[in-house]
Known about the structure:
By secondary structure, this protein is an alpha+beta fold. The chain has helices spanning 3-25, 43-59, 87-92, 167-180, 190-198, 212-224, 248-260; strands at residues 31-33, 40-42, 77-85, 98-105, 108-116, 121-126, 130-135, 141-142, 154-157, 183-185, 205-207, 228-230, 243-246. Helices cover 36% and strands 24% of the residues. A six-stranded antiparallel β-sheet has the order 3-4-5-6-7-8. β9 (154-157), α4 (167-180) and β10 form a beta-alpha-beta unit. The protein is globular, with a radius of gyration of 17 Å.
Amino acid sequence: MxxxxxxxxxxxxxxxxxxxIVREAGSGxxxxxxxxxxxxVTEVDVASERAIRELLHEVTPGIPMPGEESGGATAxxxxxxxxxxxxxxxxxxxxxxxxxxxxxxxxRPVAGCVxxxxxxxxxxxxxxxxxxxxxxxxxxxxxxxSDRPSAQAVxxxxxxxxxxxxxxxxxxxxxxxxETFEDLRRPGAACLDLAWVASGVFDGFFELxxxxxDVAAGGLLIEEAGGVVTDWTGGPGWxxxxxxxGPPQVHAELLRIATSTDLG
Length: 264
Ligand code: IPD
Ligand code: CA
Ligand code: CA
């Protein structure tokens, strides 16, 4: 095992560990409001994050883990974790829910895992080593982005539902995206949206206002599956949360859409 695959293996263990807690809890869990409207947390988010933190701390005590629910500082190298991505889906019993664990080094994710506890899918990537899907008891399959032309592309997205002030910016891009692509999807768990791009299920993805814990592992999956990931200006700052991702041909369209509709 190379050093980076040792970390992706640990990310996988941690994501499965958190996912076990999410799956056993099932749905019907009550949620408390956090900060922005539509931002919810449940005791399951917190329990998953605690379990992941304990496991990562036990194996890599020198690497900090800022988590969505409990915060914490970053460093040159740090774990970043979304213990339950898609909390609204979880509360409503919609199974598009993920657990995302990534190791970031000098600002770039280098190892990561996205696990879907209700779907039984586990996506793992290590920089330079590829991206893989484990499903049921079948041998892992290597991920590759799709080669569909833009006119046949089905592209995932997420709405800026917590930041209505961004609606004019987002809706301008959405309108052109609907004209450009065959269709769009909004499942509601960003880490899974990205995993579906890496596996060629979706042909691209765009969203504003995500957080590093939403995108770190999924963005790495896409890069290791042959896709392109940037921010909305085409720059490398996608970990901050404005993200365009897809196979090269769809990413180029997304970048054209994002830049041509930016009137501000
Ligand atoms: C949310 C989901 C959703 C995205 C939101 C995220 P959470 O994560 O990924 O798809 O649109 O912006 O915050 O809050 O359920 O972990
Ligand atoms: Ca999230
Ligand atoms: Ca979350």
